[in-house]
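Table S2 (continued). Query chain:
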Amino acid sequence: MPSCSWARLHFSPGQSERTSLYCSELPMCPPQIMEHCIKQNNAIDIYQEYFDDEEMVEVTEEAPSAKTINVFRDPQEIKRSATHLSWHPDGNRKLAVAYSCLNFQRAPEGMSYESYIWDLENPNKPEIVLKPSSPLVTLEYNPKDSHVLLGGCYNGQIACWDTRKGSVVAELSTIEFSHRDPVYGSIWLQSKTGTECFSASTDGQVMWWDIRKLSEPTEVMIMDISRKEQLENALGAISLEFESTLPTKFMVGTEQGIVISCNRKAKTSAEKIVCTFSGHHGPIYALQRNPFYPKNFLTVGDWTARIWSEDSRESSIMWTKYHMAYLTDGAWSPMRPAVFFTTKMDGTLDIWDFVFKQCDPALSLKLCDEALFCLRVQDNGCFIACGSQLGTTTLLEVSSGLYTLQRNEKNTASSIFERETRREKILEARHREMRLKEKSKTEAKEDELREEVPSVNLEELVAKAEEEFFSIVFTELKKKEAAALKPKPQKQQKMEGDEEEEEEEGEDEEEEETPT
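Corresponding output:
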């Protein structure tokens, strides 16, 4: 670059702008230098974000907290339980709530079958009323078409709504080909058409459907872990899990506390049930894979929540303490891999962060006096909806620390999962060794007993038994002979003589009575 006064002014523009020399010397600058500087300014974007793709690593010192945003109450006089929740897929400004009474044959007379779609900004009146033929136990928005909803009914039928057509059911499965028990799980599948789904019920069946033809299911699978496909041996399904990244796999939580891992595309029916995980003492009300690490999944049942790994089938790798109240539902945070939520029968919502604290929840909130039955977390992790036994749905907003990814949280959560999985594998191997030792001991004892039995001479035993038998017989015979040879006493002889005379008199009387 040729030396001129422009170079001097370029390095100290603040001083030059305050002098008239700047204005007088600027036109004197060669045009080549001016053009070079303008092109340089155009080539560099001073507002460019160079690290836009990096993960958010904000660290907050704020204590975990949550506040109630809104409360949606069942408008019916006869209150029903809020049994399932589903967020609107576009914008999450609406919430679909299924209402039902799950007490078998105890539904109050005159109970409404209606379920509702609520606008989050208007808690006074539902935006849309859904009118099924039987109370809804589950209700799910179609992720590809927000106007379409899938419902599982108490009588086992599958219903479908199109909100553009009103409140009436658009499609309904025939009762002959539907479930025999209430439908406790229904999930949309990732398909090209966006019309495929599947459902599960306590009748022990999982059914696949296409809403374009709901007259009968496209496929049926029986949850018989003995792999004999007998419906009377099937385990009742009460929760479902499907991960779109694993399109052929799904998991079923049963009434018996067993999780069944399945592969829909297996070659034979027996191979469709891959494996089982058992660890709960009662029904598994919630089952969900970790959104960041699908190999690990959360289950909620009895008085605990448990985290499992597919690599460790004999036991869960992490679990909460046993609570005083029964747990009813649970879900992972979609934004943080170490955070999950659980609801309890005492009306408490627990928020867990096992990176921060493992023995106790990071935050416990008492939302109501009645039992909480269900919960659903919004896609951004900011809002949580909880449904209660009396049909009240509470909308909560959690503090930013509970939905903002923390520094190195993914690596920390992954290392915790791997560490606990290794620990469980070591314990499983140890238990396996102990079982083998016990088995070998029992087998050794049985072998010893088998060896002792042939060492006894059977012929000698038979001969000895015969000798004892005949000696007893001969002894008895000798006793009888000795008794017969003994002389009878006089009194006994007299009594015998009297008896003989009486017998003779009796015979004479009989002869006299007989006519000649």
